[in-house]
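User: Here's a protein and a ligand (GFP). What would the complex look like?
Assistant: Let me lay out the input and then the predicted complex.
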Amino acid sequence: DNTPELRPTHPLALAPVVAPAASVDGFAKQFLQNLNFDQGVTLSTSDVNDQYLALAYTVRDYLMARWFDDRAQQKAQQNKTVCYLSAEYLLGRQLDNNLLAARLTDIATEALAQCGIDIDDLRQVEIEPGLGNGGLGRLAACFVDSLATMSIPAIGYGIRYEYGIFRQAFADGQQIEQPDAWLRMGSPWDFAHPEAAQTISFAGTTETYDDEGVERTRWVPEWNVLAVPYNMMVPGYHNGRVNTLRLWRAVATNAFDLHTFNSGDYVESVRAQTFAENISKVLYPEDSTPQGKELRLQQQYFFVAASIADFIENVLPEDFDLENLPERVIFQLNDTHPVIGVPELMRVLVDEKKLEWDAAWAITQKCFAYTCHTLLPEALEVWSVDLLGRLLPRHLEIIYRINDEFLLEVRERFGDDEMLIRNMSIIGEHPSRSVRMAYLATVAGSKVNGVAELHSQLLRDNVLKDFATMWPDKFTNVTNGVTPRRFLRLANPDLSALITEALGAGWTVDLERLRGLEALADDADFRERFAAVKASNKRRLSRVLEARGETPLSDDHLIDVMIKRLHEYKRQTLKVLHIVSTYEGIVTGRLDVDAVQPRTFLFGAKAAPGYGMAKRIIHLINAVGEVVSADERVQGKLKVLYPANYNVTLAESIIPAADLSEQISLAGKEASGTGNMKLALNGALTIGTDDGANVEIRKLVGDDNFFLFGMSEPEVEALWADGYRPAEFYQRDERLRSAIDLIASGAFSDGDRTVFEPLVSNLLYEDRFMALADFSSYLDAQERVDAAYADQDGWVRSAILNVARSGYFSSDRAMRDYLDRIWHATPVS
Ligand code: GFP
C-alpha cells in the first residue's frame, strides 16, 4: 500500500485547543454561534430554552480546553487518581456553578444583556439533575467539587439515570410521585462517548479450563449490555482545573431485531433494548419485588464493572503493570452500593489478567476503601445468595473464597469461636443465605470510615465491633463537609459579599478564615448589616415560594426549617408534635401568646415511594398546616409551609433565609447530616440532639449558640435496655397528651379519627425512634428558642458566631482528611 499516511499539516490542526476570548465580545460571539449552529435558530427566533442551551454550550466551550489538558496531564504525570464510586450524585443546577468556577459570571451576564437577554430568565430554565436521594448523593457532589478545586486527579463514576429522584406533588396533602424527566429539554452539560462503551456481562455459568498447564476459571455469561459513558466536566473554583464525572448509561448490544419487526411484532422487536435500558432507567427502582431487587443489583454491577474497566483501559497507560495498581488508584466505595466492585476487580485480575490469587487480593485490598453512611441495621445492604449467584455466578464464587480465607484468619486470631465466626462471616445465614455487603467492604477495604466522630465511634463500638477489634487501624473517621462555593458563595450572594468585604476573598477556598468574623459579632454595625442580609434572603425565599404557587412568607417571622429526607429516625413527627402543641397551647390559652414568637415552620422532604409511614407523616404535616393556616386565632403567629418537590435548587433558597435549623434525630441514628452544616454556615442556629455531626457543630459554635435537647446516645441505649414504654411519657406530660389527643380526635382530618390512627398508635405503642421520650426536653428547648429570638441583637450575634465557627465543615477540609488518612493522593502540579 503506497498511500502516504495522512498527517495534520494545517496550522490550526496543529495548534492546541484554546478557549474563546474571555471578554464580553468573545462570549457574545460564541453564544450567538452556538445559538445558530447548535440550536439551529437565530436570536430573534430563539426561545428561552434555546438561549439557555446555547449559554450552557458556551460555558462548556470555555472549560473544554482545560479539560483536555487536565486529562492529558493526569495520564502523563501518572499521579494517583481518586475514583469515587457512587450510585448517587445529587448535583443541583450546573450553570451558575460553572460560571462561577470559570470566572465568567459577569462576562456572561453582560454579553447576554447586550443580546437583550436577562440571564436570570435562563437560570430558571435549567432542570437540576436529581441523580440522588439525599445526603449521600449530595455529599458525592460536594466531594467532586472540592477535589477539582484542590487539583486532585479524580474521577466520579456513577449512573446516568434517565429518571432521577421522582418529582413530588401533593394531592389532598398526600404525596404523589411523578417521573423526573430531567433530560427532556436537552442535556447540555454532558457528552456521550459511545466509542468508549464497555460491554458488561451478566448471568450464565463458570467453568474451569486448562491454561497451559494451569487450571483457571472463567465466566461464561449469558447476556451483555453496553455501558456508554457520558462525561460531565467538573471545574475547580478559580484554579483552571477541570475534572470528570463519568456516568454510565445502559444500551442494548443488539437493540433492534429487524426480522421480528418485519413480521409485525413491533413490541418484541425492541424487547432487548427495553430490557437493557431498564438498567439505567431510574434511580432506586422500587425493590419490594424480586424484579426490583434484581434490577438494583444489575445497576450496581453495571456501573462498577464499567468504571473499573474504564480506569484500567483508558486512564492507565498501555502495558501498565497491574501489580502497581495501588500506586495509581484508590476506589472509594460510597456506601455499599459499589461493593460488588471488590469481587469484580478480583475477577479481572485473576481470570483476565491471570495474576495469582494472593497477589490479586493484596492489590485489591489496597485499592479499595469504604465509607459507611448509616447506623440503621436495616440499611446495611445484603444480597441473597440465590440472586447474586444467578446474576453474577463468578462473583459469588470469589466472595466465597474471600470469606473462607477471611474466616481462617479469624480462627487463627480468635480460636474456634463459632458464634464469632457466624457473626463476622460475609455470608449471613439468617433469615436466609445472603451476602453482607458492608462486611465484604470492611474485609476488603484498606480503610473504613464513618462520616462524623460519633458515627465512626459507634461503628467501632457496635455495628462493626468485631472487625474493629481485629483491625483497629483500619477504622477511621472523616467528618462530612459541604462545598462553600455552592452553599455559601452562590446560594447566599449577599452574605458572601459582606464576608468578602470584611475578610477579603480567600475564604471561598479556605473556609477557616471565617473565624475572622468572630470579632465582628460584637460590632453593632456589622450585626445590623448581617441582619439586613438575612431579611433580604427571607424576601428572596418568599418570592421563590410565590413563583412556585406557594404561600409567601410573613414579615418578621422566625423561619424554622426542617429540610431532609422524610424518615422516622429523623423525627419529623416530633416537629409536628411541637407545632400541634404550640397551636393547641395558644388556642386554649395555656400558653402566654406574647412569649411565643411568630414562626413559620418550613418543611422540605420526600418520602420513599414504598415507605407508608413516612407518607402518613407527610399527610399529617400538610393537614396540620392547613388547619393552622386557616385558624384565625393563630393568624400572624403560626404558619406551616411545605413546598412540594424539595430539591437542591429549593434548598439553595431556603438555607440562606433560615433562622432555626431542626436537627432532631434520635441520638445514635443520624450518621452525620450535612444540611445541619449548610444551615449553620448560613447563620441559622441549630436546635438539635447530640447526634451525628451536631455534636461537632455544637462543640465548635459553643453551647450558647446552639439549643441542645434530648437523650444522649448512651441514655437512649439505657432506656431501650430498660424497656421503653412510650405511653408512659404520654401519661406523664400534659402538653404531649393534649397534642396527641388533638391529632387522634380528628381535628386535622375533618373529624375522621381513622386517618391518623396508625400514626398515633405507632407513637403510643412502638415509637421506635423515641419521639415521645424526647418531647418534653424538645419543648423546653423550643421555649429557650423563643426567649432567645425575642432578643434580636443577641440572636444575630449567635448567628454570626455560627457562620464564623463553621469553617471546619467545608468539604475541602473533608477532602484533606480523606487524602491524609485514606487516599494518600497528591495534587497535580
Ligand atoms: C446519609 C446519612 C446522613 C449523612 C449522609 C452523607 O444521608 O447522616 O450525612 O448520608 O454521609 F443518613 P441520606 O442519604 O440518608 O440522606
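Summary: Residues 133-136, 139, 373-374, 451, 480, 565, 670-674, 692 surround GFP (CB under 6 Å).
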